[in-house]
Amino acid sequence: MRILVINPNTTASMTDKIGKAAMAAASPGTEIVAVNPKDGPPSIEGYFDEVFSVPGIIAEMARAGDMDAYVIACFDDTGLEAARSAAVSPVIGIGEAAFHLATLVAGKFSVVTTLARSVPAIEHNLVKYGLSARCVRVRASDVAVLDLQLPNSEARRKISAEIGRAITEDRAEAIVLGCAGMTALADELSREHGVPVLDGVACAVRLAEAVAALGLKTSKAGGYATPLVKPYAGLFAVLSPGAGKA
Predict the structure, then answer these.
(1) What pLDDT, on a 0 to 100 scale, did the predictor assign at position 146?
(2) pTM, to two decimals
(3) Are 37 and 60 in contact (CB under 8 A)?
(4) N or C: the chain end with fewer CB closer than 10 Å?
(5) Burial class of 133 by CB neighbour count within 10 A (0 to 12, 13 to 18, 19+)
């Protein structure tokens, strides 16, 4: 089985970290291919960054060709619907995957993400997925995404402190880490706080394997129908539906 894991931002060091986490979570025999776009924002922090990362996601899918499954490794599930329209194989977002698995191990959970500007998008997704009733609160740790790459930053301390508040104040029974850049922290923080701490990258890889192994494909009967063939203009001409295959 081959799974393409796409980090939608352009920071290669984060892609490397995400790829290693995905390989650690994958079953024996599963090949993980971790990539990031060449063009776009270095980090995705809010709605504006999201818009400019989506063309890169679709381009990476087209470049990779047929895969057994795809994982979108941004917690906002950036471009997830567009990616599902472009692909027949299943496409799993790390946010949606972590939310669903959290409901299997806890009655209620809280999300600890990066900056406050990311909270509305996550809350919106929880409503869209029908899981808002199971999430007590989405919390910001006041950590910029790229700070997670700095060895001497205060990122881990701030995230851990916010988890502590979520357990005490929200009475959360599990914690979902709200950024792919936090992937390496899950096991350590789970031991520290004594509750399940879920990393979306690992959750998405395992779900992608399961869905692909069941032979399930993305439905083309409705909103995820294959895009209509038409020529796009200017910078996006190469991404015109029908110009390539994802």
Answers:
(1) 87
(2) 0.94
(3) yes
(4) N
(5) exposed
